[in-house]
Amino acid sequence: MMYQHYRHSSSTCSQEYHGQGMEVGGNNFDSGQQPQEQELATKMLQIQSKRFYLDVKQNRRGRFIKVAEIGADGRRSQIFLAMSTAAEFRDYLSSFSDYYSSLGPPNPDNVPDDGKLKSEMMLKDNRRYYLDLKENSRGRFLRVSQTVTRGGPRSQVALPAQGMIEFRDALTDLLDDFGTDDGGLLSVDRYKGELPEGRHLRVDNKNFYFDIGQNNRGVYMKVSEVKSNFRTAITVPEKCWPRFRDILSDYCEKMGRTLPPDSVHDVPGAPGPRAGSAQPSRDIDTFTGSAPSRI
């Protein structure tokens, strides 16, 4: 498996799937209330001296993953991720791991005052997630903090950097089995027609994938950029596609007017080559098949 050589030798993983039993009193990751929850699956990872549990759960508001960290002293910390947020987090784990693998040995003289080496932020409804790759006297680790914009306690887990790939792979397994649709009873009217096929655009050594999907919030387009071991993605709701298109068209027109005539056709998405140009149209390709295997 890709990145296998980064796995920590002391890490182990186990998985258990559950039936239809109902668990009462579980934490609601959205409201803090305690409705009935159904536990669908769980995975356990042993990374250095810590244990991590990834539990796929479902309640009336939808599916989500509870991530619990159990320290060597028995102290417990946990965060909650909607399925779509878990997929975004999975992608960030790849980029953080790539960055971590590019670092040399720890050097206390080069560590920033706050210890942060790389940071990202995810936003989901009224929740923010801060991802910070940090370094201290005990080593390098990824701190994931969850906050609620309307107030409330801050929760966080700390994942040893050596275990990021194993954590990502375990998360990917759960997402492959249960999908990235948050689900829930608060769904919008679903699009009944057949969704358009995905599209593929290759520019130099980068690949861009355009995939149309649907979840409880409606139809969306996921644009993924893939370059060797790097992958990132954005999601564009269907309701803003026309505005998104207009902005891109405006940029294409402005760049087409300002670039020298000989260079216009070199800009992906710019107006086509001048009359008589032999520049081939080879960057755009279409594909069929299921998108989740790529994203």
Fill in the keyword field for this structure:
single chain, 295 residues, alpha+beta, six-stranded antiparallel beta sheet, five-stranded antiparallel beta sheet, globular, disordered N terminus, disordered C terminus
**Gross geometry:** globular
Structural class by sheet pairing and helices: alpha+beta
CA-to-CA gap between the ends?
A: 16 Å
Radius of gyration: 22 Å
List the secondary-structure elements in sequence, H or E.
Answer: EEEEEEHEEEEHEEEEHE
The profile of the biggest β sheet is: 6 strands, antiparallel
The share of residues in helices is: 10-25%
Unreliable stretches, pLDDT < 50, 5 or more residues? 1-11, 17-34, 264-295
Number of helices: 3
Q: How much beta, percentage-wise?
A: 35-45%
Task: Write up this protein.
The radius of gyration is 22 Å and the shape is globular. The strands form 3 sheets. Strands 1, 2, 3, 4, 5 and 6 form a 6-stranded antiparallel β-sheet that branches. The chain has 295 residues and is an alpha+beta fold. Helix content is 18%, strand content 39%. Helix 1 packs antiparallel against helix 2 (164-178). The chain is built from 3 helices and 15 strands. A hairpin with a 2-residue loop joins strand 11 (199-203) and strand 12 (206-215).
